[in-house]
Amino acid sequence: MNTLDVRSQLKDSVPVAGFGPHGSYGLQDSLRTGFTSIKNELIPSHSLELSEKNFQVNQDKMNMSTLRNIQGIHAPLKLKMELKAATQIQRLPFLPSSHLALDTLRGSDETIGFDDILNDPNQSEVMGEPHMMVEYKLVQRLRWRDTPFPISMQMLISCPQMFTLHTTCRE
Amino acid sequence: MATLTVSRAPLGGFDFGNCKRNAVLERETNTAGCSLPSARKTGTTICGIVFKDGVVLGADTRATEGMVVADKNCSKIHYISPNIYCCGAGTAADTEMTTQIISSNLELHSLSTGRLPRVATANRMLKQMLFRYQGYIGAALVLGGVDCNGPHLYSIYPHGSTDKLPYVTMGSGSLAAMAVFEDRYKPDLEEEEAKRLVRDAIAAGIFNDLGSGSNIDLCVITKGKVDYIRPHDEANKKGIRTGDYKYKAGTTGVLSKVVTRLDLELVNEAVLTMDTS
C-alpha cells in the first residue's frame, strides 16, 4: 500500500540516479537520455518509478511491522536475520547471482511477476565495470569514509582477513 | 561496446529510463502537427452472468487501434485455470500479459496447496497487481469461475477496485449490455436461458457501440466442465457481393486477328548455381 508521498519516498530510500549522466566515459549521452539537467536526475521521470524501486523494501517493512504487532519482536528479528544471511550468499558484484536461498525464504521462487519477465538481469546486454563495482561494495561494507579512493588491490591481497568478501560459487 | 559505470546490479521489471525521452518526443511531434501511434485497445463489450449451476462469460471479438479495426476476430476470453476464465477489456497487451501472469501464479499456487484454485484467490492477486501499478496497466476484467464454494463472478477495474456481483458488464459497450441485463436478469436461470441472455447483451453492445463488433464468444463454466464456444454467433457477417464488374469471356466480338512475330536474337546464356548448402 503506497501512501507515502514523493518527498518522503525520496528521503529514506534507494537513490534513483547513478554516478551522474550515464553514457560511455562518463559524458552525457544525448541520444539516450536527452539534455542533462540536475533536476532530471533528482526527480523521477515517472510517478511509478520511486514506488517500484522501493516496492520490495516497503512490502517487507509492512509485513515485519504486522508480524511484530501480532507475534512479538522475536519473529521479525529471526526472519530479518535469516534474510540478511541469505543476501550475503552471492557471487562478485558484477556477476549474476541466483539468489536461491533468498528466493526460497521470501517465497518468490513460487511467484512470477514483471521483474521475472521484463529486463531479466541474467540476459542484460551490458556488464558492470568489475573494478568499480567491487570497490563500491567494499566501501559500502567497511564504511570507511576517510579511506583514499580507490582502495588498491594490493591491500586486498596482503591482509585478506580484514576484507570479508564472500565469493562462494553459485549454488 | 563500452561498459556502463553502474554501482548496483541491474534489477528486473519495468525500466523507466525512456520516459523523459518519450515525453520530449511526444511534445516535438505535437508541435510539428502529427501524432504518435496509439496502443491497440479492445474497445469492447464483455459481460458475465451467474446462473443456476455456474457462470456464463461473453465477449465480442473486435480489437481497435484508434479508428481502425486491428483484429476482426480476436479472443478476449482468457484462460486462468481449468475452472476460472477471465474476459479482458482495455489495452489488449495489458489484459493478455496480466491474465497470463496471474494464470502462471495461480498454477504455482495450486501446485503448492494441492487444491483447485478459488476465484477469490485470482481476484485478490489481480487487484493487488493492478493497484500496485496505480492504473497505468489499463486492464478492465470480468473474472468468473466455479470452485468448491460455488460459482463466483467479479469485475476488476484498472485501478484495482473489484465488485462481486451476479451480473457484470465492462468495456465501451457496457452500458448497452447492462441495459439488456437489467431488463431480463432473474436469479437462478437455466443454462440455455443464460446463454441467450448473454448473447443478446453482447449483441446489443455490438450493434450500438462502434468499438465492439464481429462475432460473439461464449464461455460456460460449470462444476467440472467448461464449454468454450468460439464463435457462438456471427452477428456481423461480411456481405456477399451481388454484382461483378468483370466481363465474361466472349462479351466483345472479335472482328479480325493479326499475329506479328518478334524475332529475338539469343545473345548470352549463363547458369548461376544457387548456394543450397
TrEMBL record, chain A:
<dbReference type="InterPro" id="IPR008012">
    <property type="entry name" value="Ump1"/>
</dbReference>
<keyword id="KW-0143">Chaperone</keyword>
<dbReference type="GO" id="GO:0005634">
    <property type="term" value="C:nucleus"/>
</dbReference>
<dbReference type="Pfam" id="PF05348">
    <property type="entry name" value="UMP1"/>
</dbReference>
<dbReference type="GO" id="GO:0043248">
    <property type="term" value="P:proteasome assembly"/>
</dbReference>
<dbReference type="GO" id="GO:0005737">
    <property type="term" value="C:cytoplasm"/>
</dbReference>
<comment type="similarity">
    <text>Belongs to the POMP/UMP1 family.</text>
</comment>
<protein>
    <recommendedName>
        <fullName>Proteasome maturation protein</fullName>
    </recommendedName>
</protein>
TrEMBL record, chain B:
<keyword id="KW-0539">Nucleus</keyword>
<comment type="subunit">
    <text>Component of the proteasome complex.</text>
</comment>
<dbReference type="InterPro" id="IPR029055">
    <property type="entry name" value="Ntn_hydrolases_N"/>
</dbReference>
<comment type="function">
    <text>The proteasome is a multicatalytic proteinase complex which is characterized by its ability to cleave peptides with Arg, Phe, Tyr, Leu, and Glu adjacent to the leaving group at neutral or slightly basic pH. The proteasome has an ATP-dependent proteolytic activity. This subunit is involved in antigen processing to generate class I binding peptides.</text>
</comment>
<comment type="similarity">
    <text>Belongs to the peptidase T1B family.</text>
</comment>
<dbReference type="InterPro" id="IPR016050">
    <property type="entry name" value="Proteasome_bsu_CS"/>
</dbReference>
<dbReference type="InterPro" id="IPR023333">
    <property type="entry name" value="Proteasome_suB-type"/>
</dbReference>
<dbReference type="InterPro" id="IPR024689">
    <property type="entry name" value="Proteasome_bsu_C"/>
</dbReference>
<protein>
    <recommendedName>
        <fullName>Proteasome subunit beta</fullName>
    </recommendedName>
</protein>
<dbReference type="GO" id="GO:0004298">
    <property type="term" value="F:threonine-type endopeptidase activity"/>
</dbReference>
<dbReference type="GO" id="GO:0051603">
    <property type="term" value="P:proteolysis involved in protein catabolic process"/>
</dbReference>
<dbReference type="InterPro" id="IPR001353">
    <property type="entry name" value="Proteasome_sua/b"/>
</dbReference>
<dbReference type="InterPro" id="IPR000243">
    <property type="entry name" value="Pept_T1A_subB"/>
</dbReference>
<dbReference type="Pfam" id="PF00227">
    <property type="entry name" value="Proteasome"/>
</dbReference>
<feature type="domain" description="Proteasome beta subunit C-terminal">
    <location>
        <begin position="235"/>
        <end position="270"/>
    </location>
</feature>
<feature type="active site" description="Nucleophile">
    <location>
        <position position="44"/>
    </location>
</feature>
<keyword id="KW-0647">Proteasome</keyword>
<keyword id="KW-0645">Protease</keyword>
<keyword id="KW-0888">Threonine protease</keyword>
<comment type="function">
    <text>Component of the proteasome, a multicatalytic proteinase complex which is characterized by its ability to cleave peptides with Arg, Phe, Tyr, Leu, and Glu adjacent to the leaving group at neutral or slightly basic pH. The proteasome has an ATP-dependent proteolytic activity.</text>
</comment>
<keyword id="KW-0378">Hydrolase</keyword>
<dbReference type="Pfam" id="PF12465">
    <property type="entry name" value="Pr_beta_C"/>
</dbReference>
